[in-house]
Design a protein that fits this description.
The complex is a heterodimer. Chain A has nine helices and ten strands. Chain A is an alpha/beta fold. Chain A has a six-stranded mixed beta sheet. Chain A has a four-stranded parallel beta sheet with strand order 5-4-3-6, sandwiched between helices. In chain A, strand 7, helix 6 and strand 8 form a beta-alpha-beta unit. Chain A is globular and about 55 Å long. In chain A, about 55% of the residues are buried. Chain B is of the alpha/beta class. In chain B, strands 1-5-4-2-3 form a five-stranded parallel beta sheet. Chain B has a four-stranded parallel beta sheet with strand order 7-6-8-9, with helices on both faces. Classes of the chains: A alpha/beta, B alpha/beta. Chains A and B meet through helix 4 of A and helix 5 and helix 6 of B.
Chain lengths: ~325, ~280
């Protein structure tokens, strides 16, 4: 491996860390002010395309330390796509099987990508009819494999796995601190498993207790893959409200509008969750007036062409002869 | 469980654990997600596929008597066995199978309280993907007890006579006609709404946070006091295709002990597609 020349022995060596941070790019035309610049942390520079590479690699490393993975025994994981893709690619590089359990509503792109990366794919209907305890269909299906076929499948479970938090405590958080030279005052994140918010917040608040952590959540009934609003967070054991200063609720349709705006004004091809986070950050710029904001942009827009087209139908106009 | 009108039809996950593998006790898993059984099930359980094994293969109807006999014979069930049914979504289709077993006269059939998810999340309970070995039997069913089933003419008769409680167990959005079916469901109807005069009590209202049925006092408050179900009158429960309403049918008939409760398995996919019938939104 030669990091200066970007020569690596395998793809996993390209995973980020303080020696190899993902880029932090200033937003110049979508909401920064002189007194409150906004910086986007581009997590799609992870090798498999999203912030989830961090949690996935930490979880796999932990399972490898325990010696439970091999060519016949792999991982099964409930995922809205990104964690699954990260796990599938890491497993492919290591020679482990991978089974992804996904909700039916995730974009077709993600389902096909999982298969391209060699994962077994199980699609479940998560929203048949509200049930007080039926729980999350994909989580229950993954638990079933891990329980009934323990000789074949291990469940990392990103919703409960502390390694998901440590990936950000040791990676994303210190990277942000270094890249802003300690000047960060606001961190803007979305909520899913809550590994990002819990790990980053824990680190940054240790360094500077005044850092404000702002979680931006979509309105109920949303259609932003990978995100959960507070009503859906019961499933995540990593959610720690004490580490979050503000929770903003943003109309989920704005996620799509802002994602297009980021692409058109910044040249950053960010996905809809990044759009949601930008909208939240703008509101705080108005409120707090001064600061240095860091926005976690979880992934890019390539996997969301069908979702973007659904929510911004004008994108389909003039696309055929 | 004390206080239920028929506590013998409900067993706990611990009871199932203690009775695993005992002769005369047969476990049957029936899920909405027909892939779930294959992924893992309680050791010794056989799996029924509601789409291919619990319905008539040609016309829209419940499984015929002979097909029911064949299914149970091939599954190694004897007439004297204790049947314990369980499944996903808090026993939706397990309750539907329970209703079928009762219609065809099986004496001892029970539901595992809390269903598949409760077993799955209890650390002392095992699951397996091993194929369950069965020894075929010669099962004989009774003629179907049609007093447990409501057909469209029964529903129309109830509308005319105004002497029957109609309980709509679907989600509020289905009841008001905002949606015709929950997202992702292929069975649907021509129109949205509900049967005039039906009371909306979503099936999950009967379920506690751990997936088990609520206490008899809570169930009385929900159905009799709050929803205004008159225990002295006949009751018809319906949903979209008759599986969620089987769950409520079970609660009304066996836990509350109402005398005359029918499951309308045609449900909204039939009623909401009929020409000229009255609909409320």
């Amino acid at each position: 491996m030669n990091r200066a020349l970007q020569v690596f022995d395998d793809i996993l060596q390209t995973l980020p860390g303080t020696e190899n941070p993902t880029p932090l790019v200033r937003l110049n035309r979508t909401g920064s002010t002189d007194a409150f610049p906004l910086w986007a942390k581009l997590e799609w520079f992870n090798p498999f395309g999203s912030v989830k590479d961090r949690a996935a690699s930490f979880m796999i490393r932990e399972l490898e330390k325990k010696g439970v993975l091999n060519g016949k025994r792999g991982v099964v994981e409930p995922t809205s796509g990104n964690t699954g893709l990260s796990l599938a690619a890491i497993c492919a590089a290591r020679g482990y099987p991978m089974r992804a359990i996904v909700p039916n509503k995730i974009p077709l792109e993600k389902k096909v990508l999982l298969k391209i990366a060699g994962a077994y794919l199980d699609v479940v209907n998560d929203e048949l009819c509200p049930s007080p305890s039926g729980g999350d269909g994909s989580i229950n299906m993954a638990k079933t494999y891990a329980k009934a076929q323990a000789d074949r499948w291990v469940l990392p479970n990103q919703y409960e796995n502390e390694a998901n938090v440590l990936a950000h405590y040791h990676g994303t958080g210190p990277e942000i601190w270094n890249q802003t030279e300690g000047r960060v005052t606001h961190l803007f994140v979305s909520l899913g498993t809550c590994g990002t918010v819990t790990g980053c917040s824990r680190f940054l608040k240790e360094r500077n207790p005044k850092v404000k952590v702002v979680a931006v959540q979509p309105t109920e009934g949303h259609d932003v893959p990978g995100l959960r609003n507070l009503g859906q967070l019961e499933v995540s054991k990593l959610f720690d409200p004490a580490l979050i200063d503000d929770v903003l609720e943003v109309d989920f349709e704005l996620a799509y509008e802002r994602a297009a705006e980021i692409a058109r004004k910044e040249g950053l091809l960010a996905g809809p969750s990044s759009g949601l986070i930008l909208e939240g950050a703008r509101r705080i710029v108005q409120r707090d007036a001064a600061g240095v904001g860091v926005l976690i942009f979880p992934d890019n827009v390539f996997k969301y062409v069908s979702n973007m087209s659904k929510h911004l139908p004008e994108l389909l106009e003039g696309t055929s002869a | 469980m004390s206080g239920y009108a028929h506590p013998e039809v409900l067993v706990s996950t611990d009871w199932v654990q203690e009775n695993l593998g005992k002769p005369g006790i047969k476990l049957i898993e029936v899920d909405v997600d027909t892939k779930a059984y294959e992924a893992g099930h309680i050791p010794g359980a056989v799996g029924f596929n509601w789409q291919t094994q619990l319905q008539d293969g040609v016309r829209r109807d419940i499984l015929g008597k002979e097909e029911f006999e064949t299914l149970l014979s091939q599954s190694g069930v004897s007439n004297g066995d204790t049947i314990v049914l369980y499944g996903d979504n808090n026993n939706w289709f397990a309750a539907y199978a329970f209703w079928l077993f009762k219609m065809y006269g099986h004496k001892d059939v029970r539901l595992m309280n809390g269903g598949r998810v409760k077993w799955l999340n209890e650390n002392d309970k095992q699951m397996t993907a091993d194929v369950t070995k069965v020894s075929p039997t010669r099962y004989t069913a009774s003629a179907p007890d049609l007093s447990l089933r409501a057909r469209i003419q029964d529903v129309l008769g109830a509308l005319d006579a105004k002497n029957t409680n109609l309980v709509d167990v679907r989600s509020p959005d289905e009841f008001t006609g905002k949606v015709i079916a929950p997202p992702g469901m292929s069975e649907t109807a021509q129109r949205g709404g509900h049967i005039p005069g039906a009371k909306s009590v979503p099936w999950a209202t009967a379920v506690a946070p751990d997936g088990t049925f609520k206490s008899v006092e809570e169930l009385k408050a929900i159905y009799l006091q709050n929803a205004g179900v008159d225990g002295g009158k006949p009751t018809i429960a319906y949903c979209r295709i008759g599986e969620r309403s089987s769950h409520t049918w079970f609660a009304l008939k066996y836990l509350l002990g109402l005398e005359n409760v029918r499951n309308y398995d045609g449900s909204w996919t039939e009623y909401g597609s009929m020409v000229g019938l009255p609909i409320e939104k």
